[in-house]
Amino acid sequence: MPPFLADALARVKPSPTIAVTTKAAELKAAGRDVIGLGAGEPDFDTPANIKAAGIRAIEEGRTKYTPVDGIPELKRAICAKFERENGLSYEPAQVTVGTGGKQVLYNAFMATLNPGDEVIIPAPYWVSYPDMVLLAGGEPVVVAAALETGFKITPEQLEAAITERTKWFLFNSPSNPTGAGYSREELKALTEVLMRHPHVHVMTDDMYEHLTFGDFTFCTPAEVEPGLYERTLTVNGVSKAYAMTGWRIGYAAGPKELIGAMRKIQSQSTSNPCSISQWAAVEALDGPQDFIAPNRALFERRRDLVVAGLNACPGITCPVPEGAFYVYPDISGCIGKTSPGGAAITDDEAFATALLEEENVAVVFGAAFGLSPNFRVSYATSDAALTEACARIKRFCEGLS
């Protein structure tokens, strides 16, 4: 008898970040004083004007099916956003709206990848990238960045990874999980490589565009190199900057042929994103943006708190990220030791497991993101929780022997 489940499932694994968040919630429910640093979402509420737009949509009966990949009003707002903030000119036919950025990325892979097609993915990477490529039948080609280069790949690494089978280069800045952001000069050096290989397309994940710190200035590939415009899918969403993770709205703009293919995929899978969420997203993009700067300042303060706290821990080196709300400390100095509770710290997963069991701090181990030995901290939580978490991590590290 043939197996019931699809063979493709053997190629992928469940999301480790969701698993850590779920485990932390279970332990909290059981009475443990757990501090969860695994969730990748802002801890503050959706702005009032955006919530009001969602409520208004309900009251006005905007609860029916919409066009498969977005209402015209939202597509126009997205075009205006790209023009205003990125200097990129798109028309609505070049725009797609999905149920979160993840669906947009997945639709693009499903619409373009054939067996043997390769997707270059810099590591550390968001946990879902390789598995989405595998589910779509492609082959992830992981290019590891180093702590010494600020977790950013070099042009030489990109050049070496490109083959005749390369279909996509997947680019994420600022990065989940490291917070690393590519400067315009660094990105220009990568785009110069891509211009020499016209068969390679570019897929960006710009979800953390508005969460950048200090004098770092965000830029996106098609903005830096207009020659890449016709082969770039620029992906973004309202989840992070607008604290709308649960509303599930992501979007992208790119070549009409690709957008049409993605629309076909979506028409036979989920159909339209939530109608109410779409109207709220119109308000997010078209409405006041004045809350973004204070939220960014709040995250920057938390970043500095966590970086200082982790660098005070024996065996940990934590670089200062340019954006997002994550840090990705290196724990090379902790590997090979034994925890206060007697656990062997053989790798970063063992470190994270022992930290949760012995100090009630939940982090995501680095192997899940493709680069070890590290772990990811999301500092999208209160100063008090972050201060206490860093104190517990320091106590844990001081007890290693």
From TrEMBL:
InterPro entries hit by this protein: Aminotransferase_I/II_large (IPR004839), AspAT/PAT-like (IPR050596), NHTrfase_class1_PyrdxlP-BS (IPR004838), PyrdxlP-dep_Trfase (IPR015424), PyrdxlP-dep_Trfase_major (IPR015421), PyrdxlP-dep_Trfase_small (IPR015422)
Cofactor or coenzyme needed: pyridoxal 5'-phosphate
Keywords: Aminotransferase, Pyridoxal phosphate, Transferase
Catalytic activity, reaction form: L-aspartate + 2-oxoglutarate = oxaloacetate + L-glutamate
EC id: 2.6.1.-
Gene Ontology MF terms: L-aspartate:2-oxoglutarate aminotransferase activity; pyridoxal phosphate binding
Record text on subunit structure and interactions: Homodimer.
Protein name listed in UniProt: Aminotransferase
Organism whose genome encodes this protein: Pseudoroseicyclus tamaricis
